[in-house]
Amino acid sequence: MERLEDIADEMSGTVTYRMNDGRFVRLDVRAVREYGAAKILSDMGYGAELPTERVAVLYHGRRVGTMAADFDPLAIKSRSFLYDPRPGDFKREGDVWVASKTLGFGDLEAVPGFKPD
């Protein structure tokens, strides 16, 4: 499963995912923020195609921990009142999540699913 970045999606309020079988699934961005893509896709019958291995997180060029396999930056619900998620806080680059340099380490720990090394 891969989330596709597309300006048309941003303008229409949707998010598109390419599934392992080649299908494309378009979801409402508000639903993804509320419930998470993994939950929605699982309910749609794509549970077997969802990733299961944790993904490394790079911060200032070095590995600092891992994120849950179903992590999606759109659905972050911070565990701290000091961190309010913003677009661009996390970008997927290949097989890793890259955390923005504007984040503090406490911000990373406020993200559900993050486990420090």
Brief account:
This protein is an alpha+beta fold and 117 residues long. The protein has four helices and eight strands; from the N terminus they run E-H-E-E-H-H-E-E-E-E-H-E.
Estimate percent helicity.
10-25%
> Span between N and C termini?
25 Å
Strand/helix succession: EHEEHHEEEEHE
Give the tally of structural domains: 2
Number of helical runs?
A: 4
Number of beta strands: 8
Strand content: 25-35%
Q: Major sheet: order of its strands?
A: 6-7-4-5-8
Mean pLDDT over all positions: 91
Radius of gyration: 14 Å
Q: What would you call the shape?
A: globular
Q: Largest sheet, described in full?
A: 5 strands, mixed
Low-confidence stretches: none
The assigned structural class equals alpha+beta
Polypeptide structure, described:
α2 (29-35) crosses α3. The chain folds into 2 domains: 2-49, no CATH class; 55-116, no CATH class. The strands form 2 sheets. It has a 5-stranded mixed sheet, with no helix packed on it. It has 4 helices and 8 strands. The protein has helices at 7-12, 29-35, 37-46, 105-109, and strands at residues 2-4, 14-18, 24-28, 55-59, 62-67, 90-93, 96-99, 115-116. With 117 residues, it is an alpha+beta fold. The model has no long low-confidence stretch (mean pLDDT 91).
Question: What is this structure's SSE topology?
Answer:
Blueprint: E1 2-4, H1 7-12, E2 14-18, E3 24-28, H2 29-35, H3 37-46, E4 55-59, E5 62-67, E6 90-93, E7 96-99, H4 105-109, E8 115-116
Parallel strand pairs: 4-7
Antiparallel strand pairs: 1-2, 2-3, 4-5, 5-8, 6-7
Helix pairs in contact: 2-3
